[in-house]
Amino acid sequence: MFKWRHQFKEALYEQLFCPVPEKYRELFADSCFRLNLARLPVLCLAAMIATLVAGVVQIESIHEDSGRLIRNLLVFGLHFVFMTVFFVLTLYYNQRGARRRSLPYRFLVPVFSVVYLFGEFSILCATIDRDSAFLRFVAILFLVLGLPLRPRMQSFAIAMATGASFYAAMPLFPPLRRMLMINSVLNVFIMLVSALSIAFLSYSAYVNTFVSRSRVSEANDHLLGLNQELQRLSHTDQLTGVGNRRAFEEKLALAWTRCAALGEPLSVLMLDVDFFKTYNDHFTHPIGDKCLVSLAHRMRDLLHRRSDIVCRYGGEEFVVILPETDLATARLLAERIRTGIESLHIPAPPTVTGPFVTVSLGAASCVPPEGESPQHLVDRADKAMYISKQKGRNRVTILE
Fold it and tell me: What is the strand order of the sheet 396-399 is part of?
């Protein structure tokens, strides 16, 4: 029966405090934390300067009451020492990169706020009944500087500053002081309402700007992720999951350039599945596709370096790029691939010699010369592969 009250409270809260959406609250809190942490040293420095100026003005304006002068200077000096300590601490935390929920920081901000407000109050008290417009200006400036200390409390800070500024301005009108005191409550109330309205608009703009930026950033991240996924799909063979022809050409060009710069050999292996057309005709194409997937995964597992790349060249042909690999090592790797695929024991068609599916490989290697295309190396590996097929298949042929 009280559900409408709860809904009314939630709607009122939404309208008055302009909360941040749930998924952005953690980011908003971190943003406020970084903002406050960056502002704290500036506020400390401003407070130190304001306290020094207030002390100088007190020395020049108070001559007849030495006790009051000493008391004020003692308060200002204590406040200056505290602000100096906070200045050093905030610089330290800015350099170190404090965490938002760390105990020292959670203790530092409330204590700093109390000391900062104490400084404001002491300067304002020193201005009451004193004809010191400059010191009152310093006090009001002191208050205004403290407004952005904590964005979530901005409304109350503006209200406090407005009320305090009103009282600080009272000594400017000695003949009207009594009347001002009589109407002070009403005037301050009106000023507080005005300040709260301004603060509400300011805070709402702050939240809306943050949320808008967060949504734009989220959309950009989503688009970046889609572009990366599209880039990955455009370079991946949809059947086997290894690189496609486009990926092979790009990776080969990069490996060719790198090996040419380093003066290292580059090797290429060409691989063809023996009697694959017969395999498809006997077992159907879906089974042939599964066979190609198994072979591609097996080749990828047999290569242990991240720089070694397996790509599907077309149909039942695969190609392997081996950067910084000489011909002898390329031959060992090719033999490992041949025996590894044969060890899968994938049944071959009855009309084929041998019980299992096998592959024929060709390998070629060179130190990339300047001005030559890597296609020459690919053609030599392809030629070596066809020699393996002519010699009876299920073997590795090397071209020097």
Answer: 309-314, 317-323, 266-273, 359-366, 396-399
What are the structure tokens assigned to 74, written together? 């003692």
Q: Dihedrals φ, ψ of 16, to 5°?
A: -85, -40
CB 201 within 8 A of CB 158: no
Identify residue 102 by its one-letter amino acid code.
S
- SS3 category, 347: strand
The model's pTM is 0.53
Beta-carbon-side half-sphere exposure of residue 200 (alpha carbons within 13 Å): 12
Kindly state the helix (H) or strand (E) to which residue 16 belongs, with its residue range.
helix 3-17
354 dihedral zone (left: phi>0; alpha: psi -120 to 50; beta): left
Strand-pair partners of 321: 268, 309
What is the SS3 assignment for 21? coil
Place of tokens 């496609």: 244
Do 297 and 359 meet the contact criterion of CB atoms below 8 Å apart?
Answer: no
Give the whole-angstrom CA distance, residue 191 versus residue 197: 10
pLDDT along the chain (400 residues), means of 10: 57 57 76 74 75 71 64 75 80 70 65 66 57 53 51 50 55 52 53 61 73 84 85 85 91 93 93 93 92 94 91 93 93 94 92 87 91 89 94 88
φ, ψ dihedrals at 313, nearest 5°: -85, -30
d(CA 363, CA 236): 23
